Amino acid sequence: MTRFGYTLMTEQSGPKDLVRYAVAAERVGFDFEVSSDHYSPWLTSQGHASYAWSVLGAVAQATERVDLATYVTCPTMRYHPAVVAQKAATMQLLSDGRFMLGLGSGENLNEHIIGEGWPPIAQRQDMLEEAVQIIRALHTGELVTWQGDYFRVDSARVWDVPDDGVPIGLAVSGEKSIERFAPMGDHLIAVEPDADLVRGWSDARGPEAASSRTIGQIPISWDPDAAAAADRAHDQFRWFGGGWAVNADLPTPAGFAGASQFVRQEDVSSSIPCGPDLDAIVEAVRSFWEAGFSDIALVQVGDEMQQEFLDQAAAPLLEKLRAAAS
What we know:
Layout: E1 3-8, H1 15-28, E2 32-35, H2 52-62, E3 67-70, H3 81-94, E4 99-103, H4 108-111, H5 121-138, E5 144-147, E6 152-156, E7 168-171, H6 175-181, E8 187-189, H7 195-205, E9 214-220, H8 226-237, H9 244-249, H10 253-259, H11 265-269, H12 278-290, E10 295-300, H13 306-325
Parallel strand pairs: 1-2, 1-10, 2-3, 3-4, 4-7, 7-8, 8-9, 9-10
Antiparallel strand pairs: 5-6
Helix pairs in contact: 1-2, 1-13, 3-5, 12-13
């Protein structure tokens, strides 16, 4: 059965509001909640970037049922993998086993802030592989010393470790990354409704592997006023159309503003469903479950419409999504 999630968008809402939205999203029936992990918003008009791990800790205590995840954390620059291992273990304990650690190779936007530059993609993939190995080792609860190509760990132990460890989801975008990371991860994370990714992930894991969730994400701009929805999507989400190659490498919100300055409103509204039509949103989401995704997280664009979306549209939308996906 397809599961539908709600995105805690740290780039567009403050921390207290995010916790409030998380509670409301659980109440209206979302199955899971994912949080972005950013140091900066994509565009200055979004206006926020609170610390995802503090927010998730609060959400874990304020909710009871929904699964939680980072979508995604980069464990290679801004965070050392040993620190990520400790944070993830603590989150799993606080949430009573509802947490998944979503990992990816990151974006320059968030990682350049430590002043260590931005490595090329091949190096970032090498760093991610090594980081996952370190996190897995530390989640055994054993003493770990590591001397790798990129990281050192000196006599480290995560003392509070959940009995079953922490499931890891890995963000992939193509055949090479699938071949490399599918054997290392528990679940697939991707932002494109690509059936080849899902099939490739399953094939790379092999027939003896444990069942794996395939988790996608799609932005929507619900609003009773279609024109306002389109305006908001253009103002805050025009960066979305740049594609991974652009999104991974631009360093600042000013860079994203420059790169997207010629993106038209109609360009955005043609790729993001805008307005009150729930059936149009269902049709946009459909491509993910038809591609084989088991979990689909929705991103409602704009902080100013979050509560109204949750109060008015989320429950009937979930009903329509589940009926269509079944």
